[in-house]
Fold these 3 entries.
Entry 1:
Amino acid sequence: MSLTKTTIFWTLRALTCAPIAILSSCGPDDPEPVGTQAPPSTLSEGQSSDLNILATTESDPDLMDLDPLKDGWDSEHLSSLAGEQLKKLAEVFESSGFSDQSKLPKIFTDEVDCNSLRPLDLKNVLPDEDTTVLRPSSFPITAAKVSLSNCFSALTSSAPADGERYAKFKIIGITPIEQGFQSTQLVSLNIRNGTSAWEQNATWNIAWKRNGSESPLINSLKLEEFEEIHSATKGVWFSDQTASVFSKETEISIATGQFGMGIGEWTERLNDYLLVMQYGHNGLAVGDVNGDGFEDLYRCQTGGLPNRLFLGMPDGTLRDYSREAGLDFLDNCRGALFIDLDNDEDQDLVLAMPLQVVFFKNDGSGKFEIATQIDQQNVYSLAAADFDHDGDLDIYTCVYYADEEIRAELPIPMPIYDAKNGGQNALLENDGNWKFTNITKATGLAVDNSRFSFAAIWEDYNNDGYLDLYVVNDFGHNNLYENKGGHFQHITEQSGTRNGTFGMSASSADFNHDGWMDLYKASMFSSAGNRVVTQEQFLPTAAPAIKNAMFQMAQGNTLFTNTGEGSFRDDGIAAGVSMGRWSWGSIFMDFNNDSWEDLFVTNGFVTGRNPNDL
């Protein structure tokens, strides 16, 4: 395999799927949290920015040979060796914990140098009576040398004795040293039972000693970052209530027979012509459609399965109302919005269908009929706002793929760090009487409008009374458009929001209570990308700007702090909210009612039949 293809493979390799991440906000004055790994100070200088990163030749007998040693990628080979050893440590934790030294795997040298992996100077930074979040009082962390047995027994001394255990090591850096190599890894240890939850997130530095062809051994262990969370009295904050919500026979059959099956199983059962998409991307909408004071739920499903409208009942259960409402479509619907489009004080519905955006009028009782439709393909999500202050809601559509003629010429996003061959988003102005006009170009939103857009949010970031537009794109940077009285100016570069990642979703909140709305973007974290992109042989002829762009794509989620001066600062790594694994949805929400906005992030990827890969 050529050097170019190997490096791209390792950079974009799918990272392991993981559970939902909940990131608690503790206020602006807390000490620096875990997850603050700094990027390398310098990336290799290059001679040219003109680079085809997918260059190949017709004759390539080793095309599918992914052995990194064949291309000189020692870092990936060493990462694989270290990963196999750390997997043994994870298995011990998951089976019985670290209290018994005799059960520790034989992966340490006799003279191993071990610093304490759980600091003594921990303080609680979350003022919540049910949950404790412990972080070191000072940085850098000072840890005393201890014996190997004390090192690991003390690590989990505060953990519950029983429960379901989970351990994960993600190696984010490899550096050669004398007689071996050094690895930097993110460490996640979790224990859950019926009444409590315990979690540690840390960064370890490990020096490995090599002895010929034998597996490397750990020669020293040092702690760089640390955070510990455990519930106090009431156990976990959230519990699965699906069974109680879908309590009647009809609804239970839907929940188990449709929602209970993964998208992978539907791709095996439904015809491709029904647009069964393996990645999902089907919309949800919440609103009171029948005016009874209870929120109702509309769930879009993949092509071939009926969309479902569930009415919220007074007893907290849901009743299927899909057919009666006239909304049980079999189309593969991407986005959905419940909003009042005709100002009659009931919730109408907008659906992003495969070939059209369809507007449904609510008769006031929760029954819908098509009011109008606009031809537009590949719409993935919808965002509504009265951007021009004329008293009605307008719609912004995010379009991922370009039309067929463009895709026929260049079917994949290129270049992957700044792709501009995506679809064209549209601003649809509400003219009243269910008429909508595409005013994208007239309002200035056609600038830089050919990216792979996943999501958009309306937010007044500069407190001038007009809602601005923030668009999150895949395979490149976001777009921020400032609303100047109904006309938009593309200010991404000067605002400091030109962060280029695999953007999936966005949300906003004043998380630090300074009076200015901040932005959060969910994207993809790749430990392989962190390792590979920092190596000298990665894209050796590329300009530093390209290499930095590629490195940024592996860094994960982004928290843009609003400075209040017309610009934003990227605080994702410093705030400990960048490593969300492969993130999709994200939302600010104060789930413990302490007045600080927390973050709820969903993550993962295509799941196989083995439930342990989540």
Entry 2:
Amino acid sequence: MTPVSRSGPVVKNQSRVLYSSAAGTDAIAFSNTVNTSVVSPVLSVFKTASAISVSLGDTLVYKISVRNNGNVAGEATLIDPLPQGVSFIANSVLRDGVPLPGVTPSSGIPLGPIAPGTQVNISFQVIVVSLPASLELQNQATARYAFVTPEGREVQGEVSSNVSKVSLAAYLLSSFLSANTNTTFVGDVITYTLQLRNEGARTLSGLLARIPLPEGAAFIPGSVIVGNMYVPGDDPAIGIPLGALVPGASLSISFRARVTLAPPSPVLGTKAVTSYGEGDEKYATTSNLAEINVVSPGFTIRLRTDLTKAVPGDNLRYEFNVINDGNLAVDAILIDAIPSGTLFVWDSITVNGVPRKGIRPGDGIPLGTIRAGERVIVRFLVSIPAFTDIRTLPAISNQGSIQYTFLLPDGRNVRQSESSNLVMTQLFSPVITVEIANDPPIVETGGIVGFRITVHNSGNTPAEVSVIRIIPPATILDPDLVYVSTLGSHGVPYSGAVQLGTLAPGESATISYYVKVNVDYLGHIITGYCNALYTFALDTRKYSGEARSNSYQIQIEEFSE
């Protein structure tokens, strides 16, 4: 039927009769004219696809428009048998943008009555599931319609659309990159796996997979496995040669990487690019983006002490400032071995000002759960024994560590540790030694004995020194004969102590004097010792000490005439 105008097309019909008269004349006689009105819908169907070329796994959208150019409405149904290689996506049919649930193109899409001069638009989606031998998707839709004439007759018809053609890629490689975990941390080892499959109709040759690692991850050499074979010389960033892959075949490539540092963003993301082809035909397939979240339960642990210069006998107060500057809550323990040469002051530990009795730093100080951004302050005391020899222990050093555990979303428990800075305390003190000697060792009563006292400072700090108890029992000092080397003069006044002044480190002083044994002394031996008293200052703190000399002995002989 030829399309006609909707203004009321009419088919006209008239008969004629050709006859001859008796007189031999030919003539024509015409009948009346019969007019028949033409009533019919005139449908046109046009089909398009959203792409002219697709690959396996792609989604394709078909659009079909049905227009009525006739002069009467027609009840129409659109039937579209899908080509081999595609699968209809359920509930994707739209009629003029309105969903038609449960409707499929092959069973028929109801279009309803299409009025003259109007158009119905249909769309639906399919997915490419296989590659036919022709490597082309061809199909044609058909609109079936029906209408009733003015005389009451029901008339049916159908109109086909144009043929839609969509080409399919002969080469098709599917690529999927994954990791063995979706959450990681600094120090963790990740296993990446690349799955390749030839979904095309031809063999893929010259396969080369490149997987550049993101910032913060480092490839572990020798960890590449292709199929079930180790390939220790390959590097994913440079490229892993894979040879050929026949249609339908699959191949798995895996390797390991270590997380070396937290990336600028909390995600490690990478894609694999696999190239293939022969001659001038070169192709490349990019995988999905494999992303791994990086948790950072990092700690800042700072140690300080109240004294950077100390004297034997001082107490040192240590303070640990622990900050969880990561993004994950952790359970933590502070461990600090007591510095060599010191003694822990029992029950001196406080955590955020709360005393923690009965525990020692070296055994671990439980800090409980520390949330992200939270701070914990730990303090405790150690003492420096007064008998510490600064010549063998010139400084005290201390460094602690924090051990913490956290749970990853993938169920793994992780334990890590961080060390604090190193804190040094220098020890300062004079080291005063005193030696006393007498000559002669044997005298009679009333005899004279000479003494020599040597005082030496072998420490690292100057000190004000005086010597006491220089006069033995049962003797009398001759004050005019007292000589002090630091003063360089005889007859130094003595009123119980001899002042030596300041002895610098490494400096010595001597005291020389004589005593007379009392004539009425009845004993046989006189023994004794002397003491050096000293004072010094360190950072405005004042200290004092005392050093005892060796013992001396004077033997008394009986006087004989």
Entry 3:
Amino acid sequence: MHAYRTHTCGELRKEDVGKTVRISGWVHRVRDHGGLLFIDLRDHYGLIQAVADPKSPAFAKAETLKPEWVVRIDGEVVARSPETVNPSLPTGAIEVRIKALEVLSEAKELPLPVFGEPDYPEETRLKYRFLDLRRESLHNNIMKRQAIIWSLRHRMREAGFFEFQTPILTASSPEGARDYLVPSRVHPGKFYALPQAPQQFKQLIMIAGFDRYFQIAPCFRDEDARADRSPGEFYQLDLEMSFVTQEDVFNTVEPILRGLFEEFGGGMPVTPKFPRIPYAESLRKYGTDKPDLRNPIEMEDATEHFKGSGFKVFAGMIEMDANTRVWAIPAKGGGSRAVCDRMNAWAQSEGQPGLGYIFYRASGATGETFEPILPPELSSQTAKPVEIGPREIAEGSGPVAKNLGASATESIRQQLGLKIGDAVFFVAGLPKEMASFAGLARTKVGTDLGLVAQDRFEFCWIVDFPMYEWNEEEGRIDFSHNPFSMPQGGLEALETKDPLDILAYQYDIVCNGVELSSGAIRNHKPEIMEKAFAIAGYPKAELEQRFGGMLRALHYGAPPHGGIAPGIDRIVMLLCGEENLRQVVMFPMNQQAEDLLMGAPSEATPKQLKELHIKLDLPKTKG
């Protein structure tokens, strides 16, 4: 017999009754039922019930067991009586009668329980992550993660891609976040950078002639944590394709992601064809470039209704700056004073002065009569006038309606297709300044009114991103997205257009309001790369110093190419129904980018610093 087990804890079934078996695992819990000890034993594969009675030579030792001790049990598989069968367990029709028991490892008093799913402080959970990972929900998430990655690898190979690995120690690259730097011992004063993404390498792979590349790539970015962004490191499905247009990338990637979400989404519907939404349109309709399309609300421009109107707050803003817009957020079913007051209070809690609104209620009209129009075959008959009762018409209510007037209030209702019992909220200002708040308000309205569908995956492509943006902090033009993207219009656009008007062949995939990936058709011509970086303030000498490898490669025959990099962590988070990435990452850091389990980051020893030629200039602590 094997030293530790003949079967796993999730393997035995009714057909194994009568067998003598050996199982090993963790003591999940111990229950004392009238002298009989029931031990739930757990391993990676499942849970099984073992029973010790007072006649068993193992009974005395079984009485000493505590949760999470590791034990080996020898015993006979017996069928449970019908009334004790547990249909929720695969092993619920049998149990193991204990003949011998050996404790393989004891556990101290637990800092957090493994049985059940109690909510414990994150600091405790991360410090004792090895215990947290024993919980059923987290364990299942991690196993689902590996299944998703396996499926992605299979789907990519089926689509004709080849898996290659790119360097981890490399040079700094402008990917939009801070680099993690690694000092070089043999080159004093010089540093490697951990890759924010394998961007340059995957382009070089295309230039080297390998045509289709992918890898499950680790990426490192020194940025603050969020629920949908891990600090420090994350993984992405990195891919690149040669001789492709933007349409080719879409047609390749879309079925891979759709199939993945159909496979692991628990039967939830997946968007059959991902809509393409231009960046500017997404901001105007949804207030964000990461729209949650499960929310049916689309904002509309209502500026014309307020120009020169009696609602002086908005009218004055429009008169002062012609670029001011008024965006209307329709709220079907939100037509009550209580709903409107709650939204107004919420806006104030977000640091806004308030939220304008109109809600539509019924207003009765007088009865009237009409002469019925009869068809020709009945025209000889006498038609009697028919009297109808009062008709309900929608009447706008609230301060905005009162000052705006009945005509404009009705025009807004008709533009938005609103009815009695509906409402509309308004956000006014310069689009670039108000879009974020308008998007939050749209989400708040949709959520509070129960308009957001919870049982589906809604995908879209966001396209036509601006090539550049204005960097307020540094007072200069900067890349808004990926610096290696092809501008729409090529070199001519760079030479003739206002940089802030240039669009790029850049695109994002968004699912349920979560940005899964960014991608682009790349610039494959050196003269375009030089001009694009010059506009962003990189003189040729600096370009050659920082990106010389890429620039040289473009001089030796680069194919048109493009790619994308969906985030693995975010995909798994959506498919596991979680709202925080730490629930789907095996060993995550905390919000301060600390690994509480391993104690990282940690101080370097004086010897290490000396070898690296580094002297510390630490900030002075107060007090």
